[in-house]
Amino acid sequence: MIAYLRLFRADAALIAFVSYLIGAELAGSARWQDVVAAALVTCISTNFIYSFNAWADRRIDARNKPWRPIPSGRIAAEKALVYSLFLLIMAVIYPFFIAHSLLTLLLFQLLPVLGILYSARPFSFRRNSLLSTLTISIGLVTPLILGYSMNTAETTLMPLFFGLFIYCLSVVPLKDIEDAEGDQAFGIRNLYLKYQNRLPLFSLAGLTADLMWIYVVPDPQTPKIHLTIVVLATIACILIFQYCRLNMQKLYRTIIRTVIILAIILNITIRWG
What we know:
The structure is a single chain. The protein is mainly alpha-helical. The protein has one domain (about 1-270). Helix content is about 75%, strand content about 0%. The chain is built from 14 helices and no strands. The chain has helices spanning about 1-5, 10-25, 30-55, 60-65, 75-95, 95-100, 100-120, 130-150, 160-170, 175-185, 190-195, 200-215, 225-245, 250-270. Helix 3 (about 30-55) runs parallel beside helix 7 and helix 13 (about 225-245) packs antiparallel against helix 14. The longest helix has 25 residues, at about 30-55. It is globular, with a radius of gyration of 18 Å.
């Protein structure tokens, strides 16, 4: 069973869970029902996305990440597929019992749809770097919007969510650095293979634009200082890796871990601040 759980990365689970709760806190205050909903989004919907991708990318992972459960032989590919399809069925069904509006139902259903578009043939957005970046970015922002929309019908924080979407569009392409070798072997379009060391510079440009967007938004309810800290911390990570000549393959994971820590702190400050 542990091997099946490892199909789903811990960092992705934490991001989905904390993002949903932050959305709920931004809407007012997270309740125990929000914790349950966050757990369902994390353990079923987001889990399906990553588990199904682990099955679909098993041959690429054999080159890029041979320690993953399927390439290492800890889980048979057929069993991983059955597990993923079970999660898909659950991800489609459970929202009908907890969604309280058409919007929230569609947001819940969006997550498994993104998982299929990203990994399943004939769509395979994973094989196109631009579509891949767009799909992952939408998937990262959706739990946050879900947590917010499940607690209020207000739309005042939509500019904030758009700013977070710009942030994701700026950072997600850096994932191509760690995937470059396997992507090249399997003919997958990879932004790092195309732009090399210029790719982090493009990310810095996007983050700078995001920083400008944050302070263009007139809404006083937008937690600008929190989002600013996240953006500046990400910029710092890129600059340190770039100019200290650190292993660039670890850049994306370092940013993700940094964001998780900041997101947890953000959740606490929103609740108790």
